[in-house]
Amino acid sequence: MAGLEANSTLKRLRNRYRLVVMNDDTYEEVVTFKLSRLSVYIVLSTIFVLLTGLTVALIVFTPLKLYIPGYGDKNATSELRELKIKTDSLETAVKYKEQYLQNVMNVLQGDAATKLDTTLLNIPTPEKIDD
To answer: Based on the number of CB atoms within 10 Å of its own CB, is 19 exposed (0-12), middle (13-18) or buried (19 or more)?
Structure first.
């Protein structure tokens, strides 16, 4: 039974079909192709493999590979990490300086809301020394 199904599938793949391209106004045949399902499958598979191969070759043999995440140079990755750390530290320094300048401006304009230190201090009383 399996032999008959395989034979019929192969027979269907090899059946010949005619593809005719006709002019719609004059009904004249412009091009005629004799095709089979197998030949169409082979042509489409070949085109797919060629396009995939060309795409892979384009990425591997050109600088486009540097745009793929994780594929870049290790030195560049470490440099980027160092630059990120420097940038973060510079951002915090700029934030602190802006806060300082804002406080100085508030003091010069008289808008400084002074916060009193309300914590209790335990100051020991000095001992008297008797002579």
So the answer is: exposed
Note the pLDDT tens digit of each residue in 75-120: 777 888 899 999 999 999 999 999 999 888 888 888 766 666 677 7
CB 65 within 8 A of CB 51: no
**CB count, 10 Å around CB of 59?**
14
Q: Which amino acid is at 105?
A: M
For 4, the token pair is: 């008959």
Domains of the chain, residue spans: 1-71, 73-109
Q: Are the C-beta atoms of 71 and 43 separated by less than 8 Å?
A: no
